[in-house]
Ribose-5-phosphate isomerase A (Glaciecola siphonariae), 219 residues
Amino acid sequence: MTTQDDKKRAAAQAAMQFVKADTIVGVGTGSTVNYFIDALAEKQDLIKGAVSSSEASTQRLKNHGIEVFDLNEVGSFDIYVDGADEITEHKHMIKGGGAALTREKIVAAVAKTFICIIDDTKQVPILGKFPLPIEVIPLARSYVAREIVKLGGDPMYRQGVVTDNGNVIIDVFNLDILNPPELETTINQIVGVVCNGIFAHRGADIVITGTDNGAQISQ
Ligand code: 5RP
């Protein structure tokens, strides 16, 4: 039987074919990306190093001996490899289940190509069943939650979580996200919101899905 972890691993290993020699690789966050980091470690002599989207990924990269560059020190780079919590056929995503959404969105913005690695449970017709994470300045938590209610969502404070940027996370339940780019913009305009987990304006370019029949690539 192919488990969800087998599928994540298959997608992560398939992403290695897009890693070019002597380049810096953008690295996301999460359990699927951890398989990618482990695969990258086996070919680490091939690459210059990585830019990372979280303290957790930075630590894992460094534990493998992979050099991690500050994003401000590198110009553009070719690929950013990251997972997703949900993804549609339009390659719009919800991300941030691991609370790393802001840095993920920044690193993704700089990369030329966003490669999303998922198992097939992440494919959805409409975004929103997975609660939408929003990173918020702590002082603005209640205000942002009230504004989200006006948009029709049910906000819930993610207890005990502080992001790598020192902020908090609100998860929004019960949204049917019919127009992801529009809602991404609307939520960004609420004062106190640092970033929301809709990745639509900068969606994925390539999606690698782990399935019962191995990794399938869509570009
Ligand atoms: C972290 C993320 C992850 O990419 C997303 O949560 C998927 O994680 P996993 O690969 O563990 O299922 O956005 O902020």
Notes: The pocket of ribulose-5-phosphate is lined by residues 28-32, 82-85, 95-101, 104 (CB under 6 Å). DSSP finds six helices and 14 strands in the chain.
